[in-house]
Amino acid sequence: MRDLKENTSDSLHLTNPIPLTCHPAAVYLSGLEDNSHRTMKYSLDKMALLLSNGQCDCMTLDWSKLRYHHTAALRSALIKEYSPMTVNLMLSALRRVLLEAYKLDLIELDVYNKVTALPNVSGKSEPQGRALSREEIQAIIATCSGDDPRNVRDKAIIGVLRGGGLRRNELVNLELRDFNLKESELFVRQAKGKKSRKVYLPDEALSFIEQWLELRGYSEGALFCRVRRGGHIKIGTMHSDAIWRMLQKRAKLANIESCSPHDLRRTFCGDLLSAGVDIVTVQKLAGHASPVTTSQYDRRGDDIKRKAVKNLGF
Description:
The protein has about 325 residues and is mainly alpha-helical. It folds into 2 domains: about 1-115, no CATH class; about 135-265, Intergrase catalytic core (hpI Integrase, Chain A), CATH 1.10.443. The chain has helices at about 1-5, 25-30, 35-50, 70-80, 85-105, 110-115, 135-140, 150-165, 170, 205-215, 240-255, 260-275, 280-285, 290-295, 300-310, and strands at about 180, 185-190, 195-200, 225, 235. The chain has a 3-stranded antiparallel β-sheet. The chain has a two-stranded antiparallel ribbon with strand order 4-5. A hairpin with a 5-residue loop joins β4 (about 225) and β5 (about 235). α8 crosses α12 and α12 (about 260-275) runs antiparallel to α13. The longest helix is centred in the first third of the chain and has 20 residues, at about 85-105. The termini are far apart. Residues about 10-15 have low confidence and may be disordered.
């Protein structure tokens, strides 16, 4: 971080509060969905701390004061601390905030062009998290035994995460109308990138949802909702963080290594690819914008790839 400190010796400083409608970071973040908002705000806060030597977060840093030597030094500092994928994500957030600063007439065009002239970092990052084994998934589901409403709900949630590969914010936004038992499908509305898609569920996951609906009832609203003390079910959207906490708790009860909702999504993609499902189909089921993203979840080893090549003829 030394280079960055030396390059910011002209001190990016705290400024008078800026109205949120004119604040480039606030304007940028206001257009993001919940999960993206949290991720990008975290990234912007980290960069603001580095740029200001710990004095500012993203809402108190004056982004309009940035110049090329600041952003170039920031990029170098990020490379030393984070993976290429994370650095590129953070640089993307930085560019978007500076674009808003330009649109808000806080910086001139020539300044904007210079401060954002930062190449992405090359190099492949290994996806974070892990794939779960069949035994681990069964152990987690086993912690949801019994007819307690919370157990029944959690088992259905785990079934959808594992059997449908949904993101946790996609799951909490599901409504009863999105579930079609006859067609074995869920309709995911306005997911990442504002795109909708259908996902299909295995019989076991469908059975888990049916058990949950017997308790929840068939009132319109969120498919998965809060369960209060005493087993009282309140129809209403859950927070996506509650899904993460639930799975952490279940993993601990199952006496397995900690896991996240995204690990079940990773397992979903990896298992389909290992079963020989083509990557474009998996991409569509997972809602990835590109098959390149889907390929990161391919766990097939060299032996499988070697056998695949041997099947080629001339």
